[in-house]
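ingest -> validate -> predict -> emit
validate: passed (alphabet ok, no gaps, 207 aa)
predict: started
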Amino acid sequence: MDVLIRLLSDTGIDYQELADMIHAAFEERLHQGLRFTCSAMTAGEFEVKMKGGYVFVALDNDSGKLLGTVTIHVRTDKKGRIYGYHEYLAVAPEAKHSGVGTKLAQAWTELLLDKNAKYVLSDTACKAESSVRWHLSNGFRIYELESYRSTDYWSYVFIKYLDDDVRKSCVGLRLHFYLSWIFIRTTRHRNGSDTALGKLYKRIWAK
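emit:
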């Protein structure tokens, strides 16, 4: 398959077409019982959420058909380091396992390197096995455990280092993950709501 990667703004694709493709791509997650937020987002909601980010699309070079998309938001952390946040990676059902996701990853990696970003973050449901495998095979490492109010599952947060100067060791990554696992599992439910300990922690922290 001859795949062309472009910024959404350089194409004639609208947000409705983008939303339809993302919904189709994530239908398998709904069958798994995983309510991914983007599975139900409208075209207007995608436009708002993607605003300010770099939206890449993968196109069939022959037909021009939309095959995939990903959004990268460029941010700055508390230490003043530039990093990227990787969202809404989706590949059309008929194009899965054909390298489209990897080609999209190459595009946003080049963008972030040009901006001197130090790392990129991403997240997905712990039970979304194919997504977890994709992240691990594309240079990401499991960084933290999370839960969000808009979902009903535990999520892995992944990190991919783009600068060796900020890279944590394997031991450091595991320790960071285990500490986050303990904190999240004791202070939040899997739907992002606070446990009794979490409510107490927030009251203490607020003081």
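The mean pLDDT is 93.
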